[in-house]
Amino acid sequence: MRIFAISDLHLDYAANHEWLQQLPLHEYNDDVLMLAGDVSDRLTLLDEAFKALTKRFATVLYVPGNHDLWINRERVHSSFEKLDAVAAAAGEHGVRTDIFRDADLAIVPLLGWYDYSFGEADDYLKAAWADFRACRWPDYDDVALTRYFTDRNPSSSSPSLQDAKQIITFSHFLPRIDLMPERIPHKHRKIYPVLGTTVLDAQLRALGSCMHIYGHSHVNRRVTIDGVTYINNAFGYPAEAHFTTRQLTQVL
């Protein structure tokens, strides 16, 4: 059994959709895939992705990304309703959103959002960031929403984690801002406040994770910080092909 990871498929783009359909049918039949969010904001494409990937992998593990919870192109009233629809689609195809165990190995999905622990959102970001228009979270601001998601994440006392000797965690959102490399130009750092939350790093370390897979930033990277290896393997937009690998990466 091998473990693969990918995020940010963004299947709304024809080139990305074509890549999914051309994945070999029999190369990964004994393997596990961690799918770290942002498949599509369209439920039809999300459903298609789940169907295609579960045909190819023994197990598909998934956490939703922010794009997956946009509602502006769906007939739903809130992003909470969209979240339920996404969960239903995963369940229909046997995509796992819970803890996966194989002998001593445990893989733990971690939900999240952004709570401005990476910086405050200025007027530019509030106008430019699509989530502020494409998502609708009645009665929740982003700080409360982050708490809503992270409070639902497993703790080390979960029965599914007992006796696990190797723990891998994965999320869509970044658990720490220093995962962004120094080479990022200052003008692009304006989006840092909406990249994630420090709560996730506290949670994954409390779980004893040795490796964490994340998405969202579209900046592919592998780096070890204080004993945890962090890996981002975003497929990304077609225009980003010069700096994303646009392929699966084997992490174990």
From TrEMBL:
Gene3D superfamilies the UniProt entry points to: 3.60.21.10
InterPro entries reported in the protein's UniProt record: Calcineurin-like_PHP, Metallo-depent_PP-like, Pantetheine_PDE
Superkingdom of the organism of origin: Bacteria
Residues of the Calcineurin-like phosphoesterase domain: 1-219
Protein name stated in the entry: Metallophosphoesterase
Organism the protein comes from: Dyella humi
